């Protein structure tokens, strides 16, 4: 196959550049690309017939491996089906390499099948788009292809990581003859070395002056993968320097006696005077987006006088709270370790042991503990009931989720309920969620991808609408046996009963909640997944230990709840929040 040899060489370039996983959706136009990766001895190739699911499965693998995953699909509308996963990867900063087969461009608008304008089809949701030539005979074409693939893979990894698109026009014939050689040639690697930003001594002195002249400091952590070294330095900063550390379950901050994790509860309805007492002079942020509205609103309404945001490369200004004063180009862990070491040494030289230095931290911790007690009281009442609610079910699940496993949280209410419950430090569970674009599409597929990428147990907590919307994730490939699916089925989009606007509309059930009447029994049978169902607390408690045991099949536990009882519980909780501030 001499004409298509550069396409065969792409598979070798993927391997040589460190990509090991490829997700393929079957198609004819993409056959040369598919055969190239399938026949490569060192690439793991998985097949997903639905391109939308394929994109999210690749995303889940890349989340776990922190390494690009290649996706191959055929031409036409198939390419558009990758778009939701591409957008999520872009805003979550997950590296993907999109290899989309295409017809030669002269056939566009010529009434030929499966032909759309694929160049720049993903717009600004990818870091860059490349369009390869349709003719490979000239040496310059081969040089261009090799150079472009080298560049694209490197670019997907460089901060901020993200998806990169390579459009690949292909002419017939697509398939090699029986006696035709189909082996990669020697390829040329072009290494792109990452830069390491270093702050000058003058910059450090300026930052330390800001720290010294700011009486009240606070660190807020957005969505990040679990990193024990980061947790260790944040713990030292909190314990020894008296700095509140604020985060959420998607920040991978555990519930303990140091970190502040119940802000969504106690920041709801506080007075201006109370807010002023919690407002920092210096706010330090790191990580991606925050989950809860109340925390974001607080920082916007009561901005800090100084706001540092730490990110490895200053490619764009991230000013979510409209208060940014300093963008610091540094790896958060390295920056915080040096910051702590410098300040700790400075305090040692000064012999500073100010007893009032933790007053601001104590204020935040007291508010957090009061909010934690309110959540515990709400759930305690629910546990005395004969009915399960979505919230009480999530609590029971999180209490028994295995230590050092992986937890995926689907969007809408599951991630919010899990955030209210939290995970303990001893569990050491790694939490992931699609909080880049925060859509419900692809939550199941992403968890399937995560389970394919690890031997650890992967638990997904997902609502019914998100589950049924994405059940093609269970269609194509054998479902990995280390996957556990907790399905909260309340027969509709439960979140719309919690939102003040939609919950008051007469069209709520028909046009917002979309009731369906489905269960997952048949879906589980089709996918050869062990299926169980629970509708009462005692049933769920009895089923969970066996559900989490390792086995040769994936497992799905469907939890049936009543959306009206869910609503009553949540409204009662919101009413009790007002009792936190009886003088307001």
Describe, in plain words, how this protein is organized in 3D.
InterPro entries: MenaQ_synth_MenD (IPR004433), THDP-binding (IPR029061), Thiamin_PyroP_enz_TPP-bd_dom (IPR012001). This protein is an alpha/beta fold. It folds into three domains: 5-169, 3-Layer(aba) Sandwich (Rossmann fold), CATH 3.40.50.970; 201-366, TPP-binding domain (Rossmann fold), CATH 3.40.50.1220; 385-578, Thiamin diphosphate (ThDP)-binding fold, Pyr/PP domains (Rossmann fold), CATH 3.40.50.970. The protein has 22 helices and 17 strands. A six-stranded parallel β-sheet has the order 2-1-3-4-6-5, with helices on both faces. Helix 17 links the parallel strand 14 (458-463) and strand 15 (483-489). The chain is globular, with a radius of gyration of 26 Å.
How would you sum up this structure in a few lines?
With 584 residues, the protein is α/β, with parallel strands linked by helices. It contains 22 helices and 17 strands.
């Amino acid at each position: 196959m001499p004409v298509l040899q550069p396409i065969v060489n792409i598979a070798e370039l993927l391997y040589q550049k460190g990509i090991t996983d490829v997700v393929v959706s079957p198609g004819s136009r993409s056959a040369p690309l598919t055969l190239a990766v399938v026949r490569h001895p060192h690439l793991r190739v998985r097949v997903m017939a639905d391109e939308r699911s394929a994109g999210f499965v690749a995303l889940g693998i890349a989340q776990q491996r922190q390494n690009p995953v290649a996706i191959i699909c055929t031409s036409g509308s198939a390419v558009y089906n990758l778009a939701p996963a591409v957008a999520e990867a872009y805003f979550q900063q997950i590296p993907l390499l999109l290899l989309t087969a295409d017809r030669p461009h002269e056939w566009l608008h010529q009434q030929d099948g499966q032909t759309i304008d694929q160049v720049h089809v993903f717009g600004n949701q990818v870091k860059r788009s490349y369009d390869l030539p349709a003719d490979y005979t000239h040496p310059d074409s081969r040089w261009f292809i090799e150079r472009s693939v080298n560049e694209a893979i490197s670019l997907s990894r460089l901060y901020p990581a993200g998806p990169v698109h390579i459009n690949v026009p292909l002419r017939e014939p697509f398939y090699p003859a029986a006696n035709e050689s189909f082996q990669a040639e020697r390829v040329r690697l072009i290494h792109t070395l990452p830069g390491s930003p270093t702050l000058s001594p003058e910059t450090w002195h300026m930052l330390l002056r800001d720290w010294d002249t700011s009486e009240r400091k606070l660190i807020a952590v957005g969505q990040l993968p679990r990193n024990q070294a980061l947790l260790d330095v944040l713990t030292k900063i909190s314990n020894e320097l008296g700095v509140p550390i604020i985060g959420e379950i998607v920040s991978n901050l555990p519930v303990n006696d140091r970190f502040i994790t119940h802000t969504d509860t106690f920041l709801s309805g506080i007075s201006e005077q109370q807010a002023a007492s919690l407002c920092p002079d210096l706010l330090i942020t790191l990580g991606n987006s925050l989950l809860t509205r109340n925390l974001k609103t607080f920082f916007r309404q009561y901005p800090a006088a100084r706001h540092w945001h730490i990110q490895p490369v200053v490619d764009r200004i991230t000013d979510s709270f409209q208060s940014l004063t300093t963008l610091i180009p540094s790896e958060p862990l390295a920056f915080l370790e040096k910051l702590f070491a410098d300040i700790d040494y400075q305090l040692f030289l000064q012999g500073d042991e100010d007893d009032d230095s933790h007053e601001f931290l104590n204020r935040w911790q007291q508010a957090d503990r009061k909010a934690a007690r309110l959540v515990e009281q709400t759930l305690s009442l629910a546990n005395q009931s004969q009915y399960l609610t979505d919230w009480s079910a999530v609590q029971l699940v999180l209490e028994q989720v295995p230590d050092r496993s992986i937890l995926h949280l689907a969007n809408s209410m599951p991630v919010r309920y899990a955030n209210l419950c939290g995970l303990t430090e001893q569990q050491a569970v790694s939490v992931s969620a699609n909080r880049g674009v925060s859509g419900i599409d692809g939550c199941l597929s992403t968890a399937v991808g995560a389970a394919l990428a690890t031997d650890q147990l992967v638990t997904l907590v997902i609502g019914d609408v998100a589950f049924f919307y994405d059940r093609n994730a269970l269609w194509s490939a054998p479902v990995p046996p280390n996957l556990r699916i907790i399905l909260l089925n309340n027969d509709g989009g439960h979140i719309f009963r919690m939102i003040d606007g939609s919950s008051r509309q007469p069209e709520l059930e028909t046009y917002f909640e979309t009731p369906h009447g489905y269960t997952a029994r048949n879906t589980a049978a089709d996918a050869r997944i062990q299926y169980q169902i629970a509708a009462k607390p005692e049933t769920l408690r009895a089923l969970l230990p066996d559900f989490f045991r390792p086995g040769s099949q994936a497992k799905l536990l469907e939890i049936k709840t009543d959306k009206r009882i869910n609503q009553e519980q949540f409204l009662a909780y919101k009413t009790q929040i007002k009792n936190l501030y009886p003088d307001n």
